[in-house]
Amino acid sequence: MIAVFLPSTFVFGQDSFLSNWLDMVTQTENEQPHWIVPLATTAPTLHQLFRYDMQWQTYNNGVTTNNYGVSKGLEIIPEKKVEVILPVPPYIVNNQNSPSDGFGDWQFPLKYRIVAQSEERGNYILTAFYQMSFPTGQYRQGALSPIITPAIAYGKGYKNCDLQGTLGGSLPTGNTLGRFPIHNRFAFTTKWLDNVSCATIGLQHRHCSRAVY
After folding, report:
1. pTM of model > 0.70
2. CA 49 vs CA 15, 76, 77, 155: distances in Å
3. What confidence tier does 162 reach under pLDDT thresholds 50, 70, 90?
4. Burial bucket for residue 170 (CB in 10 Å: 0-12, 13-18, 19+)
């Protein structure tokens, strides 16, 4: 009888924990605007999902770099107002015919939502963001030293429009200068269409990347 009772209690406890956690996640997401997650830049909203992005960038010399993954991955809400991201290191392909393709640096991002209101209550959000990047890239794909990236992510919506952006800095721990980018994204959404325009404004110093082509 004991052998039957203990597994039943264990299973009940698991179900109760999972149910309470998912309820907390739903409540956390409902307390903020329900905007589309932006590409490239960091979303100020908290989500629980798995994300995978791909980017292609062509330089003036004609070389194109493909980034598969873009340091996205599993996003988890372990507690109200907190999001932990467990990214997969990006795989970088340097065209043309480069022997230096490989995985980039591993990053560990955290988000803390300072204040937010849903569309019915104000339609805005302000979130603190922290990221630590480690120089684990293959074939010099990445930074020379660990990089600390504090930032503020913000957003304001009005009817079918929303403006999302980030303001922060990349602070290398080694003997290199940082950069201080500002990313903004404007979206106009209808029932059938989502139009997005992005702008990046920033003051950038000597880049700390060491990718080899």
Report:
1. yes
2. 20, 7, 9, 20
3. confident
4. buried
Rounded to an integer, the average pLDDT of 74-83 is 95
- 167 phi and psi angles, rounded to 5 deg: -135, 120
Contact predicate 151/133, CB 8 Å: no
β-pairing, 147-158 vs 171-172, is: antiparallel
- Alpha carbons 200 and 195: distance in angstroms, whole number: 17
CA 7 to chain centre: 39
Q: Which CA distances in Å does 173 have to 105, 132, 140, 158?
A: 15, 10, 17, 40
Give the angle 92-44-115 at the CA atoms, nearest 5°: 155
Say how far apart CA 167 and CA 202 lie, in whole Å. Answer: 9
Q: 126-150: per-residue pLDDT in tens?
A: 999 999 988 887 766 777 788 888 9
Tens digit of each residue's pLDDT (9 = 90 or more) over 22-60: 999 999 999 999 988 877 677 899 999 998 888 888 877
Alpha helix locations (H) across the chain?
2-30
Q: How far is CA 67 from the centre of its chain?
A: 15
Instruction: Tell me the pLDDT of the chain averaged across its residues.
Output: 77
- How is the chain split into domains, by residue range? 31-204
In the chain, what is the straight-line distance between the N-terminal and C-terminal CA atoms, in Å?
67
